[in-house]
Amino acid sequence: MPGLIRGGVWARAGVCAPVAALAGCGEMGLLDPAGPVAAGERAMFFNAVVIMLAIIVPIIVLTLYFAWRYSAKRPRGQYTPDWSYSGRLELLVWSIPALVIIFLGGIAWIGSHELEPSRPLRSPVRALPVQVISLDWKWLFIYPEQGLASVNRLVIPAGTPISFRITSGTVMNSFMVPRLGSQMYAMAGMDGKLNLQADKPGRYRGLSAHYSGEGFSEMAFFADAVTPAEFAAWVARTRRAGPVLDAPGYLKIERQAATSKPYTYRAVAPGLYEAALKQSGVRASEEQRSGREDTE
After folding, report:
1. Are 164 and 196 in contact (CB under 8 A)?
2. Within 115-190, where are the H helices?
3. For the whole prediction, is pTM greater than 0.85?
4. 83 preceded by a cis bond (ω within 30 of 0)
5. Is residue 28 exposed (0-12), middle (13-18) or buried (19+ Cβ within 10 Å)?
6. Residue 41, SS3?
7. Is residue 8 classed as helix, strand or coil in its secondary structure?
8. Residues 163, 130: contact at Cβ < 8 Å?
9. Could you read off the pLDDT of 180-213 as tens digits, one per residue?
10. pLDDT tens column, 81-91
């Protein structure tokens, strides 16, 4: 059973042809994975489809066959009006659906544990922590180890697991990069955990998968996976320019209207994510600072 989740090679043969016909419709999302989580989810999807087709296709074929063979114009077969029971037929009717449910349940059980969002990814490379805050109507990405932040642009090193902590400074949203894998709800006061990875450099579309008001259409961003050297260069450039994101700066971008334009902060006040997680923490610290200034 684990081989069905990890590989899915035999499953792809039955469904790749119709899926490939849709390739001209734009980004394929989960059907064109760029990371291990999305690849595992695609394998689960393909395996489930093939298992269900194994019972659906024969039923469709047999329905058409019986309609043709036993039609009124072609009277065939033995007429048995008193027939009521067949042990073999009962075994066939119940065993096949039971096997399908067992296989689907096994795939869902194993896959849901292997791809559990908070479970760290297996990798010899140390995970990069990124803190995500959804606002009206923008995404704030904080890099605690690098001490900087960006709005509406996520830059990550390819081949490195990314350990996300996700919360909301406003209404509920849903953080998702389809080609990298699972989505995670961003909710006020909750600290969501999500682990993803981009296997190769590229630009991947990110979005909010949950409607959150009039600026919802602006809640899109790009996840740029770059080489480790390019990521280090981006960190160095970001540290040399831009404002500092402190409590007043956070409250300012929190009140700003929707914007899809990306920009960066060269430094971030320590503990800003934890304060945003507590909702009133940023406002309280700013009020205390203003009170001290008024007293002085």
Report:
1. yes
2. none
3. no
4. no
5. middle
6. helix
7. coil
8. yes
9. 998 999 999 999 999 999 999 999 999 998 888 8
10. 788 888 888 99
